[in-house]
Design a protein that fits this description.
The protein is of the alpha+beta class. It contains 9 helices and 12 strands. Strand 3 (84-85) and strand 4 form a beta hairpin.
Length: 321
C-alpha cells in the first residue's frame, strides 16, 4: 500500500491546517478557538511568539516515549521530520511523530510516499489530567488527540494510529485508533468549510466566546449605534437576569465564607475527624515597585519605561427594553 505526499511543499509551518489545528476548527481545543486560529492564518493574530516549556518538554520526551512503545509492542518506529500533505487537498498537512514498521530494516516513506499503514503519536500529560485518558489499551483519549489521529490517517492513508502517552512521568499507556472513514469525512468536511469559506475568503468565523468577540472587535466606532432586534433584546434581558442571580449567589457565598473564617480565627487548617476540610494561609510576600512614588521622585526614569496600553472595550448595560 502506498499513499502520496506532496513533498514539494515541505516547510516547517506550511500555510494550511495541521493536525493540532483540527480541534480548534471544531471548537474542541482547550487552547485555541476557531477564530484565534483564523487570525493566525490570515495574519491578524496579536499573540506574540514564545517558546513554551511544556511544548519543548513534549518534543524532548518524544524519543523516550517512542522507545517505550517499541519495548511494549516489539515494533519499530521511524521518524519523518518533513510535513506530509494530502494527495488532493494541499492545505491538509501533518507532522507525524513516527511511522510504525514490523522490523527495524523496513522503511516507512519512499520517494515521498508512505508505505506503511500504521503511525504513532507520542504524548505527555500531567498527572492532574489523567482522568481525561481512558484505561491502558482502550480508545478513550482527549478529543483533540483523536481528531489529530483522524487527520493524519486521512493524509497518509494509514489504517491505524497508535497514541503512546506518558502521564505524570511514571504511567505509560497505549491507545489504538482504527480508521473510520465516515467520521473522517465529517471531520474533513467541517475543516474544508472553515478553509474555503473563512480562511481563503478572509471572512472570520463567528465568535464562540467573549474573548473571541473582543479579539474580532477590539475597538468601537465613536458615536455609532446599532438598533437591537427582538432576539438581542431577549438576550439582554436574560443576561441581566442571570447576572443578578450571580450577584445574589456571590453575596450569599461571601456571607457563608465569612462565618467559616470567623470560626477559624487564627487557625491555619479546618479539620473534622482527622481530615483537613479547608486551609486559610497567607500567600508568599512579594516586592512591587511603587510606581506613583517613582513617577514623583524620578519622572525621567519612569517615562523611559512607560508604555501606552490600549484600553479594552467594557460592556455596560444601560437599560432593558
Amino acid at each position: 500500500m502506498s499513499h502520496s505526499s506532496n513533498s514539494s511543499n515541505q516547510r516547517s509551518r506550511p500555510f494550511g491546517i495541521g493536525g493540532s489545528d483540527v480541534a480548534a476548527v471544531l471548537g474542541l481545543s482547550p487552547y485555541k478557538s476557531a477564530l484565534e486560529l483564523w487570525c493566525d492564518l490570515v495574519g491578524r493574530s496579536t499573540a506574540t511568539d514564545q517558546s513554551l516549556l511544556h511544548l519543548r518538554f513534549g518534543q524532548h520526551a518524544e524519543s523516550f516515549i517512542a522507545k517505550e512503545y517499541e519495548l511494549r509492542t516489539g515494533l519499530s518506529t521511524k521518524e519523518h521530520k518533513q510535513p506530509l500533505f494530502h494527495p488532493e487537498f494541499d492545505f491538509m498537512y501533518g507532522h507525524i511523530d513516527r511511522f510504525v514498521c514490523a522490523d527495524a530494516d523496513a522503511v516507512s516513506v519512499v520517494n515521498g510516499k508512505v508505505v506503511t499503514d500504521r503511525l504513532l503519536e507520542c504524548k505527555t500529560a500531567s498527572v492532574f489530567n489523567r482522568l481525561e485518558w481512558g484505561d491502558d489499551g482502550s480508545k478513550e483519549v482527549p478529543a483533540a488527540y483523536l481528531l489529530q489521529c483522524i487527520w493524519y490517517m486521512a493524509i497518509t492513508g494509514c489504517e491505524t494510529a497508535d497514541i503512546a502517552a506518558l502521564i505524570g512521568n511514571n504511567d505509560f499507556r497505549l491507545y489504538t485508533i482504527q480508521r473510520d472513514r465516515e467520521l473522517e469525512q465529517l471531520v474533513v468536511s467541517h475543516v474544508k468549510t472553515f478553509w474555503f469559506d473563512h480562511v481563503l475568503k478572509k471572512s472570520p468565523p463567528p465568535p464562540s466566546s467573549v474573548l473571541d468577540a473582543q479579539l474580532l472587535y477590539p475597538k468601537e466606532m465613536a458615536d455609532s449605534n446599532i438598533e437591537a432586534n427582538e432576539n438581542v433584546v431577549g438576550s439582554l434581558k436574560e443576561f441581566v437576569e442571570i447576572s443578578n442571580q450571580i450577584k445574589t449567589l456571590t453575596t450569599e457565598c461571601d456571607r457563608i465564607k465569612s462565618e467559616i473564617l470567623s470560626y477559624m480565627g487564627q487557625s491555619e487548617k479546618l479539620t473534622f475527624a482527622g481530615k483537613t476540610l479547608a486551609t486559610w494561609k497567607s500567600s508568599k510576600s512579594s516586592q512591587r515597585i511603587d510606581t506613583k512614588t517613582l513617577v514623583s521622585d524620578h519622572p525621567d526614569i519612569a517615562s523611559k519605561y512607560t508604555q501606552t496600553v490600549i484600553g479594552s472595550r467594557r460592556f455596560l448595560v444601560k437599560g432593558v427594553a
